[in-house]
């Protein structure tokens, strides 16, 4: 299939217009969500009307005009929350719930919004597909009892990052904690007080050298990667708890994404190293 065929049947604006960076809000997206809701989900309007008041504290009359006002001009966070509330209100109607989620996903994509919707209707920031693959592929390495505490800190990190207003500082620190716990596990009986550049160089480097001793090129690359991991550790320490500043600003989203992606890749690498040297123990 050539490029022309790949675009067959798509709207002109979806093929030829420059999309630019994803946006947080869109008049067109709001209108589309309202139109779908009022025409496709109208029988459930009473349930949604009640849920808005109970769950979000939003006073919306059960009529067309009031819902139009909410969708078109309501506070953005309340609108994003309402996507989930609508899904929950449709829990007894799985067909309608699935249609709603599918439609919202399409609107977010076509209107170039910076959000994604999970299978239960929860709204999260959308980074990119590679970021999500990196995140989810690491989870399968954590599916052993040995890594219970590591998994708890890892999940906490991404729960912080999934907030409508991401707690990026807390997310980076929890990811750091997950890596620190794993590092101490790998060191066994050695008394390692904390994860630092110094301790990683002293204690992890020998394991890396042993792991790739028979592959000179891989060893060179691994040692360079180890150095970059040490730099990541030093960077993460800037967002540790107990800073001298009374209020440390959260890292910008682009820095937070880079730190989370790099830290997650390092965690996965360490998990692979640990399972290479402690495979049977990891499976217990």
Question: In words, what does this structure look like?
Answer:
With 284 residues, this protein is mainly α. It folds into two domains: 110 residues; 155 residues, Four Helix Bundle (Hemerythrin (Met), subunit A) (Up-down Bundle), CATH 1.20.120. Helices cover 66% and strands 2% of the residues. Strands 1-2 form a two-stranded antiparallel sheet. A hairpin with a 5-residue loop joins β1 and β2. α4 crosses α6 and α9 packs antiparallel against α10.
List key phrases describing it.
14 helices; 284 residues; mainly alpha; two-stranded antiparallel ribbon
What are the SSEs and their pairings?
Elements: H1 3-6, H2 12-16, H3 27-40, H4 45-56, H5 64-73, H6 76-89, H7 94-110, E1 115-117, E2 123-125, H8 129-139, H9 148-161, H10 168-187, H11 197-211, H12 216-236, H13 253-277, H14 279-283
Antiparallel strand pairs: 1-2
Helix pairs in contact: 3-5, 3-7, 4-6, 6-7, 8-13, 9-10, 10-13, 11-12
């Amino acid at each position: 299939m050539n490029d022309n065929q790949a675009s067959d049947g798509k709207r002109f604006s979806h093929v030829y217009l420059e999309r630019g960076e994803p946006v947080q809000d869109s008049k067109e997206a709001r209108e589309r969500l309202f139109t779908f809701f009022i025409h496709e989900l109208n029988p459930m309007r009473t349930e949604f009307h009640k849920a808005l008041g109970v769950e979000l504290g939003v006073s919306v009359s059960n009529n067309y005009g009031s819902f139009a006002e909410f969708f078109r001009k309501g506070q953005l966070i309340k609108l994003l929350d309402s996507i989930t509330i609508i899904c929950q209100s449709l829990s007894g109607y799985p067909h309608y719930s699935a249609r709603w989620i599918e439609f919202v996903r399409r609107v977010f994509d076509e209107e170039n919004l910076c959000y994604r919707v999970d299978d239960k209707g929860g709204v999260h920031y959308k980074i990119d597909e590679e970021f999500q693959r990196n995140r989810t592929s690491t989870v399968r390495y954590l599916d052993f009892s040995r890594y219970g505490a590591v998994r708890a800190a890892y999940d906490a990190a991404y729960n912080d990052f999934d907030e409508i207003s991401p707690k990026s500082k807390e997310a980076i620190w929890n990811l750091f904690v997950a890596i620190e716990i794993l590092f101490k596990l790998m060191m066994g009986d050695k008394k390692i007080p904390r994860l630092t550049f110094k301790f990683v160089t002293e204690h992890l480097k020998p394991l890396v050298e042993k792991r790739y001793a028979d592959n000179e090129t891989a060893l060179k690359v691994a040692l360079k990667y180890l150095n970059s991991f040490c730099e990541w550790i030093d960077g993460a320490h800037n967002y540790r708890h107990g800073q001298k500043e009374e209020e440390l600003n959260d890292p910008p989203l682009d820095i937070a994404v880079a730190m989370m992606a790099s830290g997650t890749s390092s965690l996965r690498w360490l998990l692979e190293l640990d399972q290479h040297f402690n495979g049977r123990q990891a499976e217990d």
